[in-house]
Amino acid sequence: MAKKAMETHNLTVKQSYYCLFLSIFVIISFQASFSEAETHYHEFVIQAKPVKRLCRTHSTITVNGLFPGPTLEVRDGDTLVIKAINNARYNVTLHWHGIRQMRNPWADGPDRVTQCPIQPGRSYTYQYTIENQEGTLWWHAHSRWLRATVYGALIIYPKLGSPYPFSMPRREIPVLLGEWWDSNPMDVLRLADFTGAAPNVSDAYTINGQPGDLYRCSKQVGLGLINCTNPNSPRCQGPNGTRFAASINNVSFVLPTRNSLMQAYYQGQPGVFTTDFPPVPPVQFDYTGNVSRGLWQPVKATKLYKLKFGARVQIVYQDTSIISVEDHPMHLHGYHFAVVGSGFGNFNPQTDPAKFNLIDPPYRNTIGNPPGGWVAIRFEADNPGIWMMHCHLDSHLNWGLSMAFLVENGVGKLQSVQPPPLDLPQC
């Protein structure tokens, strides 16, 4: 793999031009003067409120008593200052999905990655600026399963005086698709953590928080297994007395407990993580064929992959047939990436790159790999900090289907992480 003009790092979900070969086990901007930019101040109170769905009322974690939460409407170039006040009984963080957060990982939100959680009774102010982004995104909790009810739309309009890239719509209505559990989602997760089995499926799909017409009382509107020492234990309720796990390049990611990754890195605290995440699978095999049970057991660790500022990176996400094939929606924090190719079966590094679209690839922050197939992405590491990459299925994230990139500072202030805010939560 080439290094210099195109440094190569390879991870398996699967490869990277720093070619990251990842095997999964389990707007356009317009120019306007800064004088038109606004600063939007919001207060998000995270609290339990009674919410009735499917004929039953639950004490549901909400933002400002709303489910879904408030819709944020801003313009490209605007700054948001959002004070999150945690009046709930769980630790919480908030993530602004798809916002690049240039040099500002402190506002990104994933629990134990870029911040310690906001503890009950505490608050934290997220402040960030929209830079050269337009479109409809969303925000959501990024701590355990609170995302089940703590989420909302984030709409970014063009700068004043800039046209839409399409005919002006007569009306705009955000549509948020979600799921509803007829129980406390945190209890569902807790039971799955205890048994090692797959979590109970949701009881309804929702549109803007409401179940569809056919539900009762509705309104109209890379996997793997961990062996157990005692297969008969109530904590080993996965297939054949095992526990479900998930991994990238056979590493099942473990979040730290003493500090967040970003705070530990910024403070120079040793022993929280290592930077030896494997760029390719430690054992290469027929990923989409019959996989030997000896390859089903990942290693639990907190391993990061280090990138130089400005490195050009290619990742190939490769699905595997361990347990079953699946479409994993892989999300990269802090970046947008070009989707240059995809296919079914195993990625062939000798022949498949010739088919890449290097002319006009679509840009995304999340991409699903074809079940039993692969998808290749590329990006430039121009945003310093620690940035999480993970499957956006919460059960898979909980099982360890994630990792993080440590992008080093470049030269000067504009290529370096900004200092953390004074009210950044501590672990």
From TrEMBL:
<feature type="domain" description="Plastocyanin-like">
    <location>
        <begin position="276"/>
        <end position="409"/>
    </location>
</feature>
<dbReference type="Pfam" id="PF07731">
    <property type="entry name" value="Cu-oxidase_2"/>
</dbReference>
<protein>
    <recommendedName>
        <fullName>Laccase</fullName>
    </recommendedName>
</protein>
<dbReference type="GO" id="GO:0005576">
    <property type="term" value="C:extracellular region"/>
</dbReference>
<comment type="similarity">
    <text>Belongs to the multicopper oxidase family.</text>
</comment>
<keyword id="KW-0186">Copper</keyword>
<dbReference type="Pfam" id="PF00394">
    <property type="entry name" value="Cu-oxidase"/>
</dbReference>
<dbReference type="GO" id="GO:0005507">
    <property type="term" value="F:copper ion binding"/>
</dbReference>
<feature type="domain" description="Plastocyanin-like">
    <location>
        <begin position="46"/>
        <end position="159"/>
    </location>
</feature>
<dbReference type="InterPro" id="IPR002355">
    <property type="entry name" value="Cu_oxidase_Cu_BS"/>
</dbReference>
<dbReference type="InterPro" id="IPR045087">
    <property type="entry name" value="Cu-oxidase_fam"/>
</dbReference>
<dbReference type="InterPro" id="IPR034289">
    <property type="entry name" value="CuRO_3_LCC"/>
</dbReference>
<keyword id="KW-0325">Glycoprotein</keyword>
<keyword id="KW-0677">Repeat</keyword>
<dbReference type="Pfam" id="PF07732">
    <property type="entry name" value="Cu-oxidase_3"/>
</dbReference>
<feature type="domain" description="Plastocyanin-like">
    <location>
        <begin position="172"/>
        <end position="219"/>
    </location>
</feature>
<keyword id="KW-0560">Oxidoreductase</keyword>
<keyword id="KW-0964">Secreted</keyword>
<dbReference type="InterPro" id="IPR001117">
    <property type="entry name" value="Cu-oxidase_2nd"/>
</dbReference>
<keyword id="KW-0479">Metal-binding</keyword>
<dbReference type="InterPro" id="IPR011706">
    <property type="entry name" value="Cu-oxidase_C"/>
</dbReference>
<dbReference type="InterPro" id="IPR033138">
    <property type="entry name" value="Cu_oxidase_CS"/>
</dbReference>
<dbReference type="InterPro" id="IPR011707">
    <property type="entry name" value="Cu-oxidase-like_N"/>
</dbReference>
<dbReference type="InterPro" id="IPR034288">
    <property type="entry name" value="CuRO_1_LCC"/>
</dbReference>
<dbReference type="InterPro" id="IPR008972">
    <property type="entry name" value="Cupredoxin"/>
</dbReference>
<dbReference type="GO" id="GO:0016491">
    <property type="term" value="F:oxidoreductase activity"/>
</dbReference>
